[in-house]
Amino acid sequence: MNVAGPATRGVSTRVVLFGVLALAVNLRAALAGYPPLIETVRADLGVDAGTAGLVQSGAVLMMAVGSFVGPMIGARLGRERALGWSVGLIALGSLVRGVPALAALIAASLVIGLGIGLAGVLLTGVVKHHLAARAGAVTGGYVVSMMVGATVASALGVPLAIALGGWSFSLAVWTVPAVLAVAAWTPIARRIAEPTSAAAAAGARRALPWRDPFARRSACYQAGTSMMFYGWITWLAPYYEGQGWSPQHAGVLLAAWSVTQIPSALVVPALAERRRRWRFWASTTLACGIAGTVGAILLPQPPGIGPWLWVVLLGIGVGAGFPLGLAVIAWRTPDGHASAATSGLALGVGYVAAALAPLVMGLLIDLTGGYPAALALLVAAGLLQAGAVWRIGDHPRAGDHSADGRTVSPASRPGP
């Protein structure tokens, strides 16, 4: 399958795709390695649930900052070079997490979040510009790569802490894959980097497309799916620890949740692209996520099957949600700069909402002494996402308009 755009300039398409996937592995691993260790961190540092949630919320808030400024930084430095630097920030933050202190944990999490936010926006522009012919499939592929990193980090968080002698060393391990990814990407970026024109730089400095209806709907969509993802990635393991699961088994449950996201993220965007039925697939997978959340609240451990049914439904919902949101932006924007700007707005707003979810959920847990009220917040997030799905509809055909108001020609539509 040829996924190349015109700008790969002699670099193998597979090499460019490999570099994108290697970078993407690091865009959730550092975040996913923390939740299985929350109770251990709380006991070691003597902090409450709200403070523990603040660590994750601070990281996600910085992801929003990175998303908002990513288009401008990409225009100044070049998307390809800036993408490498952003993953370098993830490596730096992971290394600082090796210091077992609350201040170091919070500061390092902020740096990691900034790097992830920058990388997420820049990746969408790189895919649109260099791998545009199959943007949906490629987007699903790099989201799956992110999920693989998250799955491994969730499963190994507690065992690494035991083997290495502390939770801080377990978190610091994720420096290694980030450094390796930057080392692999740097020579690729030098070959494919596009010179930034004055017009492109000026366009990136303009305000984000707040007035565009599609961009606003995409922002609402990302707010819902991001709250669902970051709420569950932070509190799924602690929730089931409260149901009597050991920390190690709860970490395996979180890893299973991540694994079930992979086929959904890989297959559903490609089906939506091929069949021109974005709304159908977005609605179907979102219904699974809401059903899993409601089930986990009302009957956390059904007799005979435990929480595994809810975990599968939740995985399907959040697994497809994020790549579908990115894919529809790639389909409806005319070039890499417009894609980065629209995704910058959507991801930025989404991460602001997602940053509040772990924190507010932690506060609700402290205030109510339990999880139902906190998990009900995720049901509300799903309903917000459902409203956005209905308004966005299916991706455009000839004569429809892109996010910047241009008419979409048949040649610019995604192929079957």
TrEMBL record:
PROSITE patterns on file: MFS
GO MF annotations, alphabetized: transmembrane transporter activity
Membrane topology field: Multi-pass membrane protein
Annotated compartments: Cell membrane
Primary location: membrane
Database matches in Pfam families: MFS_1
Keyword annotations: Membrane, Transmembrane, Transmembrane helix
Domain Major facilitator superfamily (MFS) profile: 12-399
Membrane-spanning segments: 53-75, 82-99, 105-127, 139-162, 168-188, 219-237, 249-268, 280-299, 305-331, 343-365, 371-390
Region (Disordered): 397-416
Gene Ontology annotations for the cellular component aspect, listed alphabetically: plasma membrane
Protein name, per record: Major facilitator superfamily MFS_1
Source organism per UniProt: Pseudonocardia dioxanivorans (strain ATCC 55486 / DSM 44775 / JCM 13855 / CB1190)
